[in-house]
Design goal:
- By secondary structure, this protein is of the alpha+beta class.
- Helix content is about 30%, strand content about 40%.
- It has four helices and ten strands.
- The protein has helices at about 1-20, 105-110, 115-130, 135-140, and strands at about 25-35, 40-45, 50-60, 65-70, 75, 85, 95-105, 145-150, 155-160, 165-170.
- A hairpin with a 3-residue loop joins strand 8 (about 145-150) and strand 9.
- The longest helix has 18 residues, at about 1-20.
């Protein structure tokens, strides 16, 4: 009888630990569009009852090179333990940073010994994108009601409003 009770208690403890997986912390996924040569990295951060999302979009810019832009919006509330995440944000509160530029060879040579010229080129590229940052955030960042399909210590699977799955991992 003691063995049976002990076995039941161990099984219940194991089930509770499986159900107690939390999405608290940082998550990341990469989406590659081979046709447009764009790479988008989504970053989710969960803490308490707040979630924050960011996106790094990288794409070739003709005559310049590969440009990476970082977008973020203010954190919002979510219900821990819920099977749903409702991403919504005000696009006017989007912050955008120029994450990096991998200049084409001609521009690399032109700015090699002239840091001021490099700064000017970075500013031109940033300003070209800055006027469209709200639209880019609205089209690129997660928006709508996502279903939490599964959550483990290392993997978070979400299903978007159209039924497509996204798999996030915890960065090391």
């Amino acid at each position: 009888m003691k063995k049976t009770i002990l076995t039941i208690m161990l099984a219940m403890a194991a089930m509770l630990s499986l159900q107690a997986q939390t999405i608290t912390g940082n998550w990341i996924t990469h989406v590659i569009d081979e046709e447009s040569e764009e790479t988008v990295t989504y970053i989710l951060v969960f803490g308490g009852n707040r979630m924050k999302q960011a996106m790094v979009a990288e794409a070739p810019l003709e005559g310049v090179g590969n440009v990476s832009l970082y977008f973020t919006v203010p954190a919002q509330e979510y219900t821990p333990g819920s099977g749903f995440l409702n991403f919504h944000f005000d696009p006017s509160q989007t912050e955008m940073l120029l994450y990096s530029i991998d200049f084409i060879n001609e521009l690399k040579a032109a700015v090699k010994d002239n840091p001021e010229k490099e700064k000017q080129l970075q500013e031109i590229v940033f300003n070209a994108f800055d006027k469209n940052k709200q639209q880019m955030a609205q089209e690129g960042l997660l928006s709508g009601k996502y279903t939490v399909v599964s959550a483990t210590d290392t993997k978070l699977v979400l299903k978007d409003p159209e039924g497509e799955s996204m798999t996030f991992i915890r960065p090391e």
